Amino acid sequence: MEAVRRVWGYDTLRPLQAASIEAGVSGRDCLTVLPTGGGKSLCYQVPPLVTGKATVVISPLIALMRDQVRGLKLNGYEAGALHSALDREDAREIESRLLRGDLLLVLAAPERALTSGFCALLAKLHDAGRLGAIAIDEAHCISQWGHDFRPEYRRLVELRRIAPGVGMQAFTATATPRVREDIVRQLGLEDAEVLVGSFDRPNLTYRVRHRRDAAEQTIEAVRAMHDRGEGGGAIVYCLSRADTERLAESLRVAGLDARAYHAGMDKGPRHDVERAFTNESLDVVVATVAFGMGIDRSNVRLVVHACLPKSVEAYQQEAGRAGRDGLGAECLLLAAPSDGSRWERLILRSASESGADPSAQLALLDDVRRFAGALLCRHRALCEYFGQSYEPENCGACDVCLGETREESDSAVLAQKLMSGVARTGQRYGAGYVADVLRGAVTDDVVARGHNALSVFGLLAKRSRKEIMVLLDQLVALGALRADEHRVLRFGARGVAVMKGEAGVRLAAPLGVRGAGSERRRERGRVVDAAPLTIEEREVFERLRGLRKRIAEESEVPPYVVFSDATLREMARLLPRSPEQLLEVKGVGRRKLEMFGEAFLEEIVAGAGG
Hints:
Blueprint: H1 2-8, H2 15-26, E1 30-33, H3 40-45, H4 47-51, E2 54-58, H5 62-74, E3 79-82, H6 88-100, E4 105-108, H7 110-113, H8 116-127, E5 131-136, H9 158-162, E6 167-172, H10 177-187, E7 193-196, E8 204-210, H11 214-228, E9 233-237, H12 241-253, E10 258-261, H13 267-278, E11 284-287, E12 300-305, H14 312-319, E13 329-335, H15 338-354, H16 359-373, H17 378-385, E14 405-407, H18 411-424, H19 431-439, H20 444-448, H21 465-477, E15 481-483, E16 489-491, H22 495-499, E17 508-510, H23 516-523, H24 535-555, H25 559-562, H26 565-574, H27 579-583, H28 590-607
Parallel strand pairs: 1-6, 1-7, 2-4, 2-5, 3-4, 5-6, 8-13, 9-11, 9-12, 10-11, 12-13
Antiparallel strand pairs: 14-17, 15-16
Helix pairs in contact: 11-12, 15-16, 16-21, 18-19, 19-21, 24-26, 24-28
């Protein structure tokens, strides 16, 4: 614990962190599942400080490796990363330092770890008695039942033969019981300790909304984030490259500083966006899911999914980019019936090109459709999906528990009427047209087709077009209907059963955006965000953020590597006036106290008025 306090400035460890670190220190095989922001990296960073032996970490993202190494060095921890962006001379220097015992931690991509050169390095390290552990980050990539399966991860078991007797620890933020079993089996973990933390992120507020206009709804969410005045950034996820470009442009037209990010961009501009966001000179990125896994910015206050994600695991990980510092953050999911069909086409095309079986990915897609369409506490739904129970009756931090949705008084009968509208019009039209028929709209198209004479015409005359379309969306999410690539509604797997009243359904009536009542309920909920800063405290906080940004630019590191927002907020509240008092602030270690303490103490005195 002394090493943790000295290097990272933490007085305590979370229970599973302590158990995982102990497994690493003792050389046992272990699988650790902690949610994003749960402190997984600390679990493989601490053991080398205790054992004096190096840990080799397999990590898939160069950007994350770079930031992690920079942060560790700033804490006085010797680490390095081997990746394709290094020139040969720098790579050799890292390898030499590792063999000499000068480095405690080395990160490498799975592709590099499987090369003959790296395997030879690992063998030398093992034979010299310098290898303490092999850590596999993002271990869900090993399983075909995971949301981001990568074939090269399956070969990582080969590293065990190169370093016999060395413990292997696997880490992931998202793994169902089935995926956890697959990870243990594929890596050949022996007598593995499986540590699973809570999947609940009580500081996140989850909302699912019908997507009426992605740009308009995203602009509204970003402006609300700015209005809260807590700083921080926003990530907006889109399905396609074209979507990111269009949405980013719409945000810029609305006066927001937003930029697109996707794999189709040239490397230079793409890197510029990534760096700008990480360094907090850009606060809104509109991106494909390629963005985020390599970004460790801790003060993301908003994550918007402008399209249904491809799985619950993907949603948990992507939404988990918000609030990594433990402070409150918003997660908004905008979904439409056509999203599932778009994902299906992509999955089937990819499977056709690779020869893989698409059934596992299609099953994951069905799961996320049900998550989005179910009238169930979002925190409960996520926990139960990952095999954990959820005790609170009301989370106080999702659209369902905040009273922003309510169940229709007679969902079964309403569902039958909606299904009848689709059936009587021949399963040939989209949600808008079916809604027109059901509400009794005398449009040219309805009259021309004679649908104003159908028994279902005007069956839901008291409902608005928008309401009916949202209800039809829910039936798609529940599997009663499906929407093809042209957004035409047809009966889904549960369609006939719902039509006959044989399958129970719960339909939610959306109440729109949250109001004052919702805010009051949230204050009584489980959200663990600290109380809002006072005006005086906020002034100090903003001064400290400015100082942090200047120091980060001079040190060529992301601002969060200097201090997190949570640490700055605590400084603004406690107003420490001496090095000893500053050291009591969570997140202030001795090395950072030596490097930055004087500057932050001076800023605190200036901000607090002397």
